[in-house]
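Hey L., structure's done. Input below.
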Amino acid sequence: MRIKSLRIKNNYLDWEFEEITFFYNLTLLVGVSGVGKTQILRAIDDLQDIANGRAINGFEWYIVFSTVSNKEYTWEGSFSVLDDTLFKSEDDDNEGKAKPTIIFEKLKDNAVNEYLIDRNTNSTTFNGNIMPKLSSSQSMIYILKEEPSINGIVEAFEKIIFKDHTHREGGKISFSRKPIKSLRESYKNFEEIKNSSEDIRIKLFLCSELKLDIFQGIKNRFIDIFPQIEDIKISQVEQKDFPINIDQTIPIISIKEKDVPKWIREDRMSSGMLRTIIHICEILLSNDGSVILIDEFENSLGINCIDILTDDLIHENRNLQFIATSHHPYIINNIPYEYWKIVSRKGGKIHIKDASAYSLGKSKQDAFLQLTKILEKQS
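Output:
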């Protein structure tokens, strides 16, 4: 998937951001804290939820995107606004409350400039045919997900991955309900592993189990950043350490420091080291067409790994799109300003501009200093 442009308005919370166009492989959202950078990422994540059947109170959207097969679509729509006394949340079992309903929804095939879906409160057409009355609180993409012309769109939205690095990456232990033997039998080579829906740690584990060259490449990249490390391994957790079902696969990352006899397990290593491993794996092991949203990319990353990882984001990702937020000077200074989107806010309106809209210096350093002054004015 590639997100080309996006415009969002939340009529319930009374905020919106103007249309933003995204760069092909990396967009860095730059701005002071509180201007709405994270809201942009969450809005993209919300669109994935809507494609999965969720209703979001007062949410209005317009997105232009392409699928893995390079088909371009425009999807737009709006949910009604319910007040707090009427609104039924996703976790609310009270049948007396309602969910927001779709006011309108359109899905256009941009190649032929024709609408696959055209829906309002009175009628719905799909491929020009009038549809019977359907769930008013679920998107047509979700309702028609089994249709061949819609299935590729559903698969595209499944490739959105939201990484909130304001929390410890190792806080949640990843696992697969498949036993190790089943996992080994399911995947025979790197391409099958990379394009699977498995968690990134499971993918790393499989690369290690199959002794693939990519695992050695990930290890070497990590050691380049942390030369005091001599080895990395990822192995199935022992049952004595976790009360688990023996049929589950729960891989744990460990590192070996030079001249230190014992391995350091991920729950005891620094959060910066752990996140660095995960970042490298995201770049090298994520599905083709993934859109990876990274909030506060710099959190818990050391200076020694920031420039290498930002360079990887620009040059090493093949068929991935990264959309990241940052207000860290070192991150901003190491990503060319052609990739910047400068975010500001006035009241409930979030504004996004290319760096080219500002009179920035020609050198990276001059551009960074100019940006610093702009952000100071915003704050």
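Residues 2-22+36-162 form one domain. The radius of gyration is 23 Å.

-- N.
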